[in-house]
Write a sequence for this structure.
């Protein structure tokens, strides 16, 4: 247990530090957005490109990993949507984001910081593939569901196409694509360029965790307990269970990537989750669920890692 806490405690201490520093106004809350942009536009793209471009292309594209993570994520999204819509009679827009809240993991910030400590840079492949599932599959699907509320087919189509365009111009997606292309062509950064990429990549983890903490300042847990509870429960328990089931059902693939998929699925919601919901008036319940899930994840992630370690899945 102490060896697991040695990995997870620094992650949550950095999140706590970000919250404390912004809460005490040592760093302005408005500055957190700029730090977040640095992570999204500079540090994480450098990390993703550097990790992918230095690996053999055949070792990156793992169909079994994609199938396991996508299958588990879609199953969780569908279950969350149906529970909110059919059993709790939530409006369509609300039900759509209840589904996404249970399935969209914080792979880039919290997940990356944990799996890289466990498995080294080899785990970045899993982070990249999981992010592609979230950004190219789950987010457009959720927007399509939300847009169908009182809209004609043309409006839905426009919204989905717009979401896909934004996704494809996302710097993280572009960095993944560039890393894959460089790997396919056998191109490697060298000299000053490689050193620059390494310096940027090295800053990704600490700054991203600080940003997560800073983003929590001002968010409230006040809201409908049923909605918050459903999204947090699905995200921290059902999502990793669904991905683990898919890993078990599919043909075997690299043990490191199997564990990475399950661990990433156990992360709380991505920080952009309430922002995606804002257009549809769902930001308050989504922000509250994000706070609750992030706080609870310290316990759930440690318990999951303890279970995986007991089964020898952490090496």
């Amino acid at each position: 247990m102490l060896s697991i806490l040695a990995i997870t405690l620094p992650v949550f201490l950095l999140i706590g530090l970000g919250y404390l520093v912004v809460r005490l106004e040592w760093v302005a809350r408005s500055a957190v957005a700029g730090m977040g942009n640095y992570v999204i536009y500079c540090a994480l793209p450098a990390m993703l490109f550097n990790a992918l471009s230095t690996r053999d292309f055949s070792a990156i594209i793992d169909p079994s990993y994609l199938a396991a993570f996508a299958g588990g994520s879609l199953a969780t999204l569908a279950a969350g949507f149906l529970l909110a819509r059919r059993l709790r009679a939530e409006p369509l827009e609300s039900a759509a984001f209840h589904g996404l809240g249970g399935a969209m993991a914080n792979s880039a910030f919290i997940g990356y910081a944990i799996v890289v400590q466990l498995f080294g840079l080899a785990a970045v492949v899993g982070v990249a593939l999981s992010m592609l599932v979230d950004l190219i599959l789950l987010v457009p699907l959720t927007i399509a569901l939300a847009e169908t509320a009182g809209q004609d087919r043309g409006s839905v189509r426009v919204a989905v196409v717009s979401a896909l365009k934004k996704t494809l111009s996302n710097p993280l997606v572009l960095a993944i694509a560039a890393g894959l292309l460089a790997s396919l062509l056998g191109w490697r950064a060298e000299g000053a360029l490689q050193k620059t990429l390494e310096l940027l990549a090295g800053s990704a983890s600490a700054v991203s965790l600080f940003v997560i903490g800073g983003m929590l300042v001002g968010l409230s847990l006040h809201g409908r307990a049923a909605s918050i509870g459903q999204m947090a429960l699905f995200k921290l328990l059902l999502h990793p269970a669904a991905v683990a089931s898919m890993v078990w059902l599919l043909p075997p693939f690299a043990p490191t990537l199997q564990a990475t998929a399950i661990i990433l699925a156990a992360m709380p919601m991505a920080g952009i989750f309430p922002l995606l919901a804002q257009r549809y008036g769902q930001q308050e319940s989504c922000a509250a669920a994000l706070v609750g899930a992030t706080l609870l994840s310290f316990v759930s992630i440690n318990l999951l890692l303890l279970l995986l370690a007991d089964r020898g899945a952490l090496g």
In short: The longest helix spans residues 283-310. Residues 51 and 124 are 6 Å apart (CA to CA). The mean pLDDT is 89.
